[in-house]
Fold this sequence. Notes:
GO molecular function: oxidoreductase activity
Radius of gyration: 18 Å
Protein name: SDR family oxidoreductase
Number of domains: 1
InterPro entries: KR_dom, NAD(P)-bd_dom_sf, Sc_DH/Rdtase_CS, SDR_fam, Sec_Metab_Biosynth_SDR
Family: Belongs to the short-chain dehydrogenases/reductases (SDR) family.
Shape: globular
CATH architecture: 3-Layer(aba) Sandwich
Oligomer: single chain
Largest sheet: 7 strands, parallel
Pfam family, one: adh_short_C2
Amino acid sequence: MSSPDYLTSLFSLAGKVAVVIGGTGELCGAMAEGLAGAGAEVVLVGRNEEKASARLAKIHAAGGKAYFLPSEASDKAQLNNLLEAVLKRSGHVDIVVNGAGVNSPTPFLDITEEEFERIMDINVKGVFLGCQVFGKYLTERGQGGSIINLGSMSGLVPLSRVFTYSASKAAVHNLSKNLAREWAPKNVRVNILVPGFFPAEQNRKVLTPERVASILGHTPAKRFGEAKELIGATLLLAGDAGSFITGAEIVVDGGYHAMTI
């Protein structure tokens, strides 16, 4: 039987630095709290300093270490500056969460090129650039690392009303698996955390009463997930507990993906 000390150390992130892109949002913000609670110094990255301040207050109140840096996920120059700023202040980066994302309920035939490009720019290009900038650092430093990309249930199975979002998340899943294969020899792990249905800012517009009833009818747990319920999977993928996990789609969905009829 494993000792309590061993289990504690297995999930400890003490001495690690975690960059959470999209950390000002609801889901990634909760993940950031979990990473800080496990001992990591967390860098919240986003565009809204006010939202970041509220999350930082929670982390600091719990005794965690965290700070905010502004950056646009789909701008490579800004991400390079972000990496440089983190290295200057924290000295290193060990964990990267690519979680910036947007959604839209527009019917397929009404989707404009501008809307399509905007969603792809953030959801796909943002992850692509985050992996490129931070992956280059992690693979070259030779000490391994963990990249966690936020996928979606709609990246696994087609879901109605979110056409561009679904296509963008399917691309994130595919890119993540390709990078997992490419970087495994360098001990840089790339995994996809796949939330089921969690009420969040980006999906509130599509959660009509009819859609909520449909979702809950297809979810064995009969409820939506709570943001804090992503923390366990995050800690598994972030540290030594998940040292042999790469290229995985870790689904946290209350059984949604297991339900057929």
